[in-house]
Request: fold
Amino acid sequence: MELLDRIKQNAKKYNQRIVLPEGYEERNIKAADIAIQEGLAQIILIGDPEQIKAHSEKLGLRNISKARIINPLSHDKKEHYIDMMVDLRKSKGLTREEASKLIEDPLYLGVLMIKNGDADGEVSGADHSTGDVLRPAFHYVKTAPGISVVSGAFIMIHPDKKFGENGVIIFADGAVHPDPTENELAEIAVASANTARAICGFEPRIAMLSFSTKGSAKHPMVDMVVNATRIAKEMAPDLQIDGELQADAALIESIGKSKAPGSPIAGKANVLIFPDLNSGNIAYKLVQRLAGAEAIGPVLQGMAAPINDLSRGCSVSDIVSMIAITANQAAGRKK
Reply:
């Protein structure tokens, strides 16, 4: 069974509550209809109920009536969420009047639903920038315990099954944090391990990438990766992780044995941690476009609850896939 099929099968078992704040947007409505039909999650749409109904009728969708639809302007928990917002942001001087306006923004309402336990995860971004999606998440859901940085992982599915885990490799960070410190890079590695387990269903073998392998070059950028590897091992002693490794030493067994003899990861890596966003983003796009790999993501890592950001150019199938991924993340956190 292909990875995405397994992710969807698991989502059906977990039956998580996934909120789509952009309920007014056509792709989201179509994706919600498919997700309900396939039983991937309990879907919560935020938007005007009459507008959503009109859209679904126009599009000939039959399952939207099974979604829970929340009107951001008038719902029974509005005052409760306002109280929560003021309490959580009182140190920042948030007034009740300001909170009353913010809670009518679907992106804020979505994260408050998660914070209050009324939803398990969120998928948004088809009609908003990454900054718009993440701002309310940072304010109210915040990062996971022990993690200070949010990162974006791409699940790369390569047609050649000899790479990674039967062709599946996680690339991080390819989407969010431009220039991580060594501590932040270690946190990205640990978060990526959780993604490997919760979404891909395999034990991570993590390579901390550099332009050097085991001291073949000397430079402060190499030292940063070496230190990040040490910190990650201290944070999560159970992880299979090694660095610094060049990409070929991480992925090709013969080269790994030659460049890093005795390394438990060299030539076997299924999680690649890039030293900065430049290298991570460039690498995933090159592998996608030149090597014919499928790129799923970005999957946001490090939040205290799963909140995933879509590309504004996303397709309906992209949204459906991200609903299933978010459901897997939510179930993984509960475990």
User: Anything to note?
Assistant: The mean pLDDT is 94.
